[in-house]
Specification:
Layout lengths: L20 H21 L2 H21 L3 H6 L5 H22 L20
Helix pairs in contact: 2-4
Length: about 120
């Protein structure tokens, strides 16, 4: 009777000790800090305010250097100047709003409930 080849049992990975609870807590707090920094960095008010302020400066400068022909085309209204000042005001509004009311990340729960078996 031919010999049957028995499969080898799978090699078990060497046991790595689980990280200490304080190490996990430290890692979580570090991730929360970096997440809060990213949230402040990419706040939509910063993007909108910055772009409106930048474009407002550009259009205002174009309005200040407008020729008589440009003013005649716009029926005597320096539309670039007024639009640029409006954009600049809106951009500054968003940036001041960001400064006065910054994003506050939600508070992390202190400890899991003891009745929750899935959480350590």
């Amino acid at each position: 009777m031919p010999e049957r080849h028995q499969p080898e049992p799978p090699q078990s990975k060497p046991h790595q000790p689980e990280p200490h609870h304080s190490e996990l807590r430290q890692e979580v707090s570090e991730l929360e800090r970096s997440s809060a920094t990213a949230a402040r960095l990419f706040d939509i008010r910063r993007v909108i305010g910055g772009l409106f302020a930048l474009y407002g400066v550009i259009v205002t400068v174009a309005g200040l250097t407008a020729s008589d022909a440009d003013l005649h085309k716009a029926q005597g209204v320096n539309i670039n100047l007024w639009t640029g000042l409006g954009m600049l005001a809106l951009g500054l509004f968003f940036l001041v709003w960001l400064k006065l009311r910054p994003i506050v990340p939600p508070a992390a729960p202190d400890a899991p409930a003891p009745s929750d078996p899935d959480r350590p």
